[in-house]
Amino acid sequence: MTATQPGLADEPRLRDLLTVFGQDGAGDEPVITVSVPVADLSAAVRRIAAHPGARLADVFAATQETDGPVTLRLIWGLDADRRYLVTESLIEGESYPSLSDIVPGAFTEECEIYEQFGIRPANGRPLNRVALPPWAGPDWPRLGRAPTELPKDVHAPHHVGGHAFEFPFGPVRQVAVESLYYGLVTSGEELVDLYLFTWHKHRGVEWRLRGMTPGDALFYVERTEGLGAVGNTWAFAAAAEAALGLEPPAQAMAARAIALELERLYNHAAATVALCQSTGLVIGQAAAEIALERLLRVNAAVFGHRYLFGVVDLGGTRADLDAAALRSDLLGAYGELERAAEALLSTNSFLDRLEATGILAEETARRLGLVGPVARAAGLAADTRADHPAWPYDEFPLAVAVADAGDVLARFRVMLTEAAESVRLIGEIGRTGAGPGLAPPPGAGPGQAASSGLGWAESSRGESLAWVALDDTGRITRARLRPAAVRNWRGFDDACRSQNVFTDIPIIEASFWLTVAGTAR
Amino acid sequence: MPLWTLRGLRRGIVTTRYPARPDASAALLPTPPAFRPDVLTAGLADRLVAVCPSRALARDGDLLVFDVGACTACGRCQAEAPQAAGDSGEFELAAIAREHLIKRIPLGGGLG
Amino acid sequence: MTGQSGTGLNVQETSEELRRTVTRLFGRSLHIRTLDTGSCASCEQEIRLLAAPHYDLHRLGFFFTPAPRHADLLMVTGPMARVFETAARKTYDAMPDPKIVVATGACALGGVYQPDPFTRGGVGSSFPVDVWIPGCPPSPLALLQGLLVAVGRLAEKVKDLDFALNGAPR
Q1: pTM for the predicted model, two decimal places
Q2: Count of Cβ atoms closer than 10 Å to residue C3 Cβ
Q3: Residue A39: inside a domain
Q4: B97 near B64, Cβ under 8 Å?
Q5: How large is the ipTM?
Q6: pLDDT given at position A186
Q7: What is the CATH number of domain C27-153?
Q8: Which of A138, A207, A371, B96 is deepest in the core (most CB within 10 A)?
Q9: Domain ranges (residues) in chain C
Q10: Are B34 and C163 an interchain contact pair (Cβ–Cβ within 8 Å)?
Q11: Which chain B positions have a beta carbon within 8 Å of A305's beta carbon?
């Protein structure tokens, strides 16, 4: 994905930041990668975090051999500058300067890195188990070496006036929902604290992708989080394309964008279904389900699959796009959602359950680095389609949907606004002649250098990131998948805590509309 | 709630009549492939086996062994050799024994 | 629920009788419990749509229940992530007999994931599976057909399909 805005690196602010890393400008490159010696890491993190519009989007590690040094990478979204900044630091020993002391939202990643690579922040604070089960001993297959001391479960201390008890719920939960474990801390009805174990669905996807070609890996990336197939495969394909120097043809990018907006549409309809179900409004649920089913049939008619599997390919898209079906079916299907939403927004008993429920403050969303409608409904106006645009999003800019109440109702309204925008975008992009097309494959054989790349897409849940490193035969040595769910689950307990009761939890969960699969990969 | 009742009545019934009547929406669904024995050679079969990401295809001598249960209808085999693999159009695939989903298609095109 | 052979028993007849018993018990009122052993979440979305207006499984006498004691049929998705096996076993054991197990979707049937340290590569080695429903994900129509086959109201079709174009002999 190449930026089309020239000269942004002339921005004095960005230039100042880059000078710190010994660079005097970025040209038009949308991704800047800098090396940061570990001794300078704290200062660098502080400096970047202070840069206006900077957001720590991901932290992950990689290693060449199990017992060798570990490379720690931080991916920063410099959203105001339309750049991503990747810092790389080589960690020789067992510890590195704490990131969460400066950016609290990095705690989850510090825990995950400890489980997978055995390196930990130097502040000595206890780390939680995140991705692996309690019995994952030294022999458990990991991306790096096992930690010397296995992490325990440590949760934030909770203050309760009176007695509180903790009860487990899950992982097998209600009908036809994913397996997920909640630890609910309550003093009766009020929810004092909530913590999640998402490891029950851990499938070791990043472990499995090593040694595959990016084309083969796409099959698994698609099925990591099926409800985010387009967003996640786009991010991954873009990462591999950046590494290989491939540029998908314009009509294929347009086809990807149409598929991405269709994915956004059906997910927002599905969230509406879940909101109605969680509030007991059966008739609203039925109306939203009619909309959802019709949208899934549009997907099948246009791209050949109800969940848009098989659309994104390495170098573009192979899938045929039935433009006539899109023109004839989309508006009718969307109309069902529009009418259902209109009725819902006039149903006071429904709105009463949504208003002031599950409030997420803007400061919390910013501190935790949340993305997507969850963040936008809390007042953070970040959307990768506007902040890091590639064709066709740079030619057809969108109005980013924002609200400020941060409650379930605000998230619902943001999704509805986005759905309307998606329909508009599909119409405009469709007129550019979207269809299948593939960039010619890279020349294989010796002489191809090892390479890496970052890719992204604004999935229905928010920014989905992927980073991939390839060896000189074009096979994956490290694949990092970071669907939006990875960021946003850490905001769920904040939204649930205090002033909310048990029966609010499904409503809040519906308004987040994440998946467990997206984080337990 | 008159708002919802009127809406519902106006909307009408969308429920499928399946299984009593066939459902037209089935035509939109991706389906596992069906193979052309007279076109299949060992060489073609091996290419199909190599391209399947879900291990639904294997070659056993002069037979292409197709595991419908493992198939995700991704279409890669059809894209690889459209002369040898096309849509089966079948979506009613439930089996009461796992072996009922293993199909053996003869390589009528020879072992070339 | 396959017929068991024993001294003097005709397997075919026993199997037919079992099938009739299943239909008698579950044919008109069936309660379904779902179990996610590590799916990508799209199988769950299709299962949820079974209760939606376009499909309405209730008109066929099928109902979902979250209560294991109330359930007759276990619909299992996902490749059986190894970290989930204990929870899966407990869910199965909590359902009283007689019960039917339906493996749902390519992952549960052994596609997509191979057996490796993280997944068993299917649910067939964890449960006695009665019905297998292919698909990625299986559409609600395919799921309906699978449930109707499971209770004996529809005959299995796939056994007699040869997936050969131009009708070559098997």
Answers
A1: 0.95
A2: 16
A3: yes
A4: no
A5: 0.96
A6: 84
A7: 3.40.50.12280
A8: A371
A9: 27-153
A10: yes
A11: 30
